[in-house]
Each structure stands twice: as structure tokens, then as C-alpha cells.
């Protein structure tokens, strides 16, 4: 996983919700591998190997983000953009600080 995202940019695509955290994501399907590719229009840019057919890229996006954060995939849900590259994910039962720390830790390990 490669990263071209500065740590200060992490906060630009995260937003605290009532019982969790919203993550704005821009998905690029049919890539060679799953990876973070920086930011795109104030969203976390995610490249996925899965094609955008029959929900495959959506399922892979949830799996990838859950692995990145180190949480069960049942805690990550696409709440907006099921048929778009621009998606909003919701991480249930986590604080903004915990998601931010997990993302930063993952990005540092990848860098």
C-alpha cells in the first residue's frame, strides 16, 4: 500500500457523528491492488482491485477500510454513494479520535 497523503489531510475527510464517524471516500475500482492513494476533493482516495459490478467494489471498500482501521467489517457501512465513486462510509461505535489514530497508524506503516 503506498500513500501520498499528509497526516494533516486526514481530518479533512473525517466527521464525527452521533454514534460514530463519517469518512468521505473516493473509490477508483479495477486497480492493480487495494491501496490508499492520497486524497481527492477532500476525500480519502482508495484504489480497489474489485470491479464496480454487482456491488463487488462496495464490498471490497468496506473490507479494506475495516482492515485498515483494525475493526470488524460489520462496523463499517456505506451510507451514501452506493452507485458512485464518491462515497460516505460510517464507522459505528467509534470516536473521531480513535478512527483518526487508526488511519494515521495505518498510513505510517504503509509509508
Number of domains: 1
Q: Low-confidence runs (pLDDT<50, min 5 residues)?
A: none
**What's the SSE pattern?**
EEEEHEEH
- Which percent bin holds the helix content? 25-40%
What's the CATH first level?
A: Alpha Beta
The portion of residues forming beta strands comes to 25-35%
How many strands in all?
A: 6
Mean pLDDT reading: 89
User: Which architecture per CATH?
Assistant: 2-Layer Sandwich
CATH superfamily: YggU-like
Keywords, separated by commas or semicolons:
6-stranded mixed sheet, 111 residues, alpha+beta, Conserved Hypothetical Protein Mth637, Chain: A, 2 helices
Description:
With 111 residues, the protein is α+β, with helices and mostly antiparallel strands. The chain has a single domain (7-106), classed as Conserved Hypothetical Protein Mth637, Chain: A. The protein has two helices and six strands; from the N terminus they run ββββαββα. It has helices at residues 56-69, 96-110, and strands at 14-16, 20-28, 35-40, 43-47, 76-80, 86-92. Strands 1, 2, 3, 4, 5 and 6 form a six-stranded mixed β-sheet that branches. A hairpin with a 2-residue loop joins β3 (35-40) and β4 (43-47). The radius of gyration is 13 Å and the shape is globular. The model has no long low-confidence stretch (mean pLDDT 89).
Amino acid at each position: 500500500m503506498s500513500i501520498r497523503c499528509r497526516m494533516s489531510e486526514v481530518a479533512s475527510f473525517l466527521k464525527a457523528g452521533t454514534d460514530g464517524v463519517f469518512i468521505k471516500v473516493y473509490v477508483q475500482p479495477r486497480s492493480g491492488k487495494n491501496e490508499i492513494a492520497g486524497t481527492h476533493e477532500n476525500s480519502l482516495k482508495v484504489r480497489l482491485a474489485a470491479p464496480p459490478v454487482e456491488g463487488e467494489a462496495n464490498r471490497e471498500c468496506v473490507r479494506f477500510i475495516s482492515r485498515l482501521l483494525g475493526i470488524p467489517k460489520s462496523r463499517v457501512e456505506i451510507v451514501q454513494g452506493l452507485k458512485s465513486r464518491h462515497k460516505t462510509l460510517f464507522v459505528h461505535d467509534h470516536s473521531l479520535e480513535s478512527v483518526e489514530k487508526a488511519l494515521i497508524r495505518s498510513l505510517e506503516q504503509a509509508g
